[in-house]
């Protein structure tokens, strides 16, 4: 049996932190505060969570962990569900049209504003009791600024994937 990848290990640790019967409130609070602070703030307080994360992935792993903590684990791990699909999941066409402006704004966001916009969106995803692939989110965040905008295209396709059938 192979060792789990760092993304999988991190999601397992985050899920453990947010267990309803015994949440680690302090660690979750540090992760949430880290959404508005520098990377060293989070690493200085809960760096043990990120031991297996490679240097190139630290920024997006910390951002994803902060978002996970923001919704206190209420947005469960669901394989192969990208952020766009989760944001549009379970909505009627009319509801999707109401969210469309916010979603387009998210897709056009630069890296500096991304944490703020994702925090707003993840709140809606968790409220809708929808899951997403947190490991995919970490990879997507690492490719957010790629010139081909493949992440944004995939999220848009995921968001609108079920619009015709609802």
Can you tell me the number of structural domains? 2
What's the rounded overall pLDDT mean? 94
**Rg on CA atoms, Å:** 15 Å
Describe the largest sheet.
none
Query: What is the CATH class of the largest domain?
Result: Mainly Alpha
One letter per element, helices H and strands E, the order comes to HHHHHHHHH
Structural category: mainly alpha
Total DSSP E strands: 0
Q: How much of the sequence is in beta strands?
A: under 5%
Name the CATH homologous superfamily of the largest domain. Answer: CRISPR-associated protein Cse2
End-to-end Cα distance:
41 Å
State the share of residues found in helices, binned by percent.
55-70%
If you consult CATH, what is the topology of the largest domain? Peroxidase, domain 1
Global geometry: globular
Stretches with pLDDT under 50, minimum 5 residues:
none
* Number of helical stretches of at least 4 residues: 9
- Using the 3D structure, state the CATH architecture of the largest domain: Orthogonal Bundle
Compact overview of the structure:
The protein has 166 residues and is mainly alpha-helical. Helices cover 61% and strands 0% of the residues. The radius of gyration is 15 Å and the shape is globular.
How does this model look, in words?
- Helices cover 61% and strands 0% of the residues.
- The chain is mainly α and 166 residues long.
- The protein has two domains: 6-70, no CATH class; 83-165, Peroxidase, domain 1 (Orthogonal Bundle), CATH 1.10.520.
- Helix 1 (6-17) packs parallel to helix 4 (58-70), helix 4 packs parallel to helix 7 and helix 4 (58-70) packs across helix 8 (134-142).
- The longest helix has 17 residues, at 111-127.
- The termini are far apart.
């Amino acid at each position: 049996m192979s060792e789990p990848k760092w993304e999988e290990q991190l999601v397992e640790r985050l899920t453990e932190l947010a267990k309803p019967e015994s949440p680690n409130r302090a660690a979750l609070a540090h992760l949430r505060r880290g959404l508005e602070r520098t990377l060293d703030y989070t690493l200085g307080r809960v760096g043990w969570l990120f031991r297996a994360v490679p240097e190139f992935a630290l920024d997006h792993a910390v951002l994803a962990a902060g978002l996970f903590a923001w919704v206190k684990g209420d947005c469960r791990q669901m394989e192969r569900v990208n952020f766009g699909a989760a944001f549009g999941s379970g909505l009627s066409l009319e509801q999707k049209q109401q969210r469309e402006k916010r979603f387009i704004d998210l897709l056009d966001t630069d890296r500096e504003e991304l944490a703020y916009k994702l925090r707003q969106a993840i709140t809606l995803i968790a409220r809708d009791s929808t899951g997403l692939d947190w490991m995919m989110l970490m990879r997507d965040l690492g490719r957010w600024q790629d010139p081909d905008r493949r992440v944004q295209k995939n999220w848009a396709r995921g968001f609108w994937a079920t619009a015709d059938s609802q």
